[in-house]
Amino acid sequence: MRELPQKEANLFKQILKCYENKQYKKGFKGAEQILKKFPEHGETLALKGLFLNHLDKKEEAYEFVKKGLRHDLRSHVCWHVFGLLYRSDKNYEEALKCYSQALKIDKENLQILRDYSLLQVQTRNYEGFAETRHILLELRPQNRQFWIGLAIAYHMMGKPDLGIKVLTTYEETLKDIPSKPDYEHSEMLLYHNSMLEETGDIQAALDHLDTIEKHVCDRNALQEKRAKYFLALGRQEDAEKAYRVLVARNPDNFAYFDGLRKSIGLGHDNLSAEEEAKLLDLFKELQKEYPRSNAAKRLPLRFATGDAFVKVADEYMRNNLRKGVPSLFVNMKTLYTNKEKAQAVEKLALGYLAALDKTKGFDNSGSTVEPPTALLWTLYFVAQHYDFKRQSNEALSHINRAIEHTPTLVELYMTKGRILKHAGDYIQAMDVLNEARELDLQDRFINSKCSKYMLRADKMAEAEKTVVMFARADISDPLNDLVDMQAMWFILEAGESHLRQNQLGRALKRFHQLFADFTEDQFDFHMYCLRKMTLRAYISLLKLEDQLRSHQYFVRAAQNAVQCYITLFDKPEGADSEEMEGMTEAEKKKFRNKQRKAELKAQKEAEEKKAQAVQEIAKKGGKVDEDPEGLKYTKTEDPLGEALKFLKPLQELAADRIETHLMGFELYLRK
Predict the structure, then answer these.
(1) In angstroms, rounded to a whole number, what is the distance separating the alpha carbons of residues 514 and 506?
(2) Tell me, what DSSP letter sits at residue 214?
(3) Alpha-carbon distance 386 to 352, whole Å?
(4) What is the Rg, in whole angstroms, of the alpha carbon atoms belonging to the chain?
(5) Which of 150, 384, 414, 586 could in theory staple to 329 by disulfide, Cβ–Cβ 3.0 to 4.6 A?
(6) CA angle in degrees (0–180, nearest 5) for 510-516-518
(7) What is the C-alpha to C-alpha distance for residues 98 and 137, in angstroms, rounded to an integer?
(8) pTM for this one?
(9) Which H/E stretch holds residue 548?
(10) CA-closest candidate to residue 479, choices 497, 463, 503, 498
(11) Among 270, 190, 262, which Cα is nearest to 232's?
(12) Which residues of the chain have pLDDT under 50?
């Protein structure tokens, strides 16, 4: 491929800068200018394709990039551009092949090596990632990001000892160590320390913590690590002092209280009577020291038993009911795993209710008159208590009484709706939630709850109309915006509603949307976190992404998607339906004709609606949904293969759930 003359070569450099600065239209015009004189210049053809890709002309983009490659097969630029094109379509496997080909031609191109390493970490090829990072480090040993990248590669390969060696070597090369705490240097040192902890050498991690203390900005993390190391090394007194400092800093952090408890030798759950008394005394001391700490008041309920529990629970509940804390029951319901505690809480709550009716106080002595709201919040608590026990009639009786007392409190209607939902009356539950929504039209949370209940009642049109009330006014397609904003509750509930209505295409479309962008969204952070040195957060992100599909939402979506695909396999289009069982051939023919006419009518109506929607979206400049019915999912030739894509992540990440194995049984039975 002959080189461009000086004028065009300079223009080519300019269009490369246009790409870097995201000036795609300007770059496209520059490429066109070169191609007028040199229509077969491969690298310019490839770049033109890249610009077209960013101008939403995918087919033309691929056409020009392939054309560019045909004219200059030995150009690393053409292969790199081809890789970028595949990467933008999230086809990482093909992109990696293109980058690999580009590196065969230009082995030391930093930009290609960087992009190659990003794809390797995205696809979790940590060995390849380490190898690429090693090459980058050899090429530019003065670049901090390359040292850190190699350390992370070894760490994620399960070799933190090698990661530590890399960081230690880099730290030894530093000539100008910041005299004052510097955030980026501080984060690198704390990351180094966390790797030392992972090797299991806690004493070395503690010693390292002492040496880096003056350079660390995150004082809280420093104190937390030190307290944790003291505890792990059995230095109980030092651990107790460290945890008391942390509790003083944040007296509502439950983890600090747990650490303090372990440091005085009371870390186990099966406490003797003497140990229980000692622990309760500690909490009393902490309550006096930190009177506004909710954790110091709530934790004794977890450890107290018998009469001590009744005494502590009585004080805790009275204070919260007096103040009118709506979340009291949510705080208490974790105790219901213990039957004795659940019975004690019920006895106390019913006692308060009877006393309030009789003397307007929490006890029958009549010595103290509680505020009028105390009765309201006690009724609210008792209603939630009975709902938790699924005694719906008792729960409804108490919540109705609370609504009579204060008919303008939104929380009461929400609880009534929940009781009705648990009782199986989705329509009435929806009506009650809508009543609650109308009490406060500015509350987004209650609007979302109401929409959710509408979806549970399969009132799709009403739910969509309600949920978009809080969408931005300039959005052309508010429902699609909810998907872009990753409102998982809406996507999942809508999918389940479609499934109940046997709209398999629409249901599958929703289940595929769930978590679709989460994996892709991490891509930008591979470079960003190395640049900004947010290393501990980055490692947490990688580990979270690897466990993402064990989340309850994905499990539900996977179950439902597998059910859809099994239905498609068992009853493919054109097969006899259950309604046709027992019919003669003539009757079946007549029934099919009737069905076909109904389908054609429905299709015509759908097309009219789509055309109308397209016009409205086009006016606002939005993107049109080409497949609102999700037909591409129902037309699949291998429904069981598609179902397996949902099942396999669960077999790896949620193998302890019975649903995973039940789904697997149904699939493999059919295979």
Answers:
(1) 13
(2) G
(3) 15
(4) 32
(5) 384
(6) 135
(7) 22
(8) 0.84
(9) none
(10) 463
(11) 262
(12) 1, 574-576
